[in-house]
Amino acid sequence: MVEAVWLTLKLATVTTVLLLLLATPLAWWLARGRSPIKPVVGALVALPIVLPPTVLGFYLLIALGPESPLMALFRPLGIRTLAFTFEGLVIGSLVYSLPFAVQPLRNAFLAIGDEPLEVAATLGAGKADIFARVALPLALPGYAVAALLAFAHTIGEFGVVMMLGGGIPGETQVLSIEIYRLVESLEWDKAHQLSALLLAFGFLAALTLLLLEKRRSAPA
């Protein structure tokens, strides 16, 4: 049980850090870019919200399996498959939780508006400086929301990790799968303990999000 808790926290932490790094340029482009394919990319990013997790997990299982053309690229490195591995779970979690990181960041970048960025540009700041010194500090509340949503969403995922990870103890058996296993084996007391833990975490995460939103909407 402790092992499942640790593995879940490890997965959520790694996923959240990587998601913030990956989502930042994507969210900035979706917010400030002018490409005609933005709606298509936005729809692809949002797809995990509406797609059944088992469907997403199924295609990820194929993509990361030993017969996948994608994995053929890694065979010279001695990697035949990433299915049923922790690394595979990280990839699945990145895809599954991507919109929960991108959307808050995109909204935060949109809320900045054009004026602060244009003022910085007229003062001679380059694009990198404008982003680092103007956009990023103003978007920090969005980063807090994105990090919390990505972390909480990864903690609670089930369908993707079940399809892609299979519940291997110590490797892919995260909390949601452990609860499922306990219920199947009629170990109700242990299932109650873990479920109550996730319930408490979910409530605290939701409460924190509401408090962050209240703080953001409060008049200066």
Describe the protein's architecture and organization:
This protein is mainly α and 220 residues long. It has one domain (1-217): MetI-like (MetI-like fold, Orthogonal Bundle). The protein has eleven helices and no strands. The protein has helices at residues 2-32, 38-50, 53-63, 69-72, 86-112, 115-122, 127-138, 140-156, 159-165, 175-184, 188-217. The longest helix has 31 residues, at 2-32. The chain is globular, with a radius of gyration of 20 Å.
List keywords for this structure.
Molybdenum transport system permease; 11 helices; MetI-like; ModB_ABC; single chain; MetI-like fold
Number of strands: 0
CATH class reads Mainly Alpha
Q: Can you give the helix content as a percent range?
A: over 70%
Coarse shape: globular
- Structural class designation: mainly alpha
User: How would you characterize the largest beta sheet?
Assistant: none
How many domain units?
Answer: 1
Q: Helix count, per DSSP?
A: 11
Superfamily (CATH H level) name:
MetI-like
SSE series: HHHHHHHHHHH
Which whole number gives the mean pLDDT? 88
Unreliable spans = none
The span between the termini is 46 Å
* Assembly form of the protein: single chain
CATH topology: MetI-like fold
Per DSSP, what share of the residues sits in E-state strands of 2 or more residues? under 5%
CATH architecture classification: Orthogonal Bundle
Radius of gyration, taken over Cα atoms and rounded to an integer in Å: 20 Å
GO molecular function, one term: molybdate ion transmembrane transporter activity
Membrane topology: Multi-pass membrane protein
InterPro entries: MetI-like (IPR000515), MetI-like_sf (IPR035906), ModB_ABC (IPR011867)
Main location: membrane
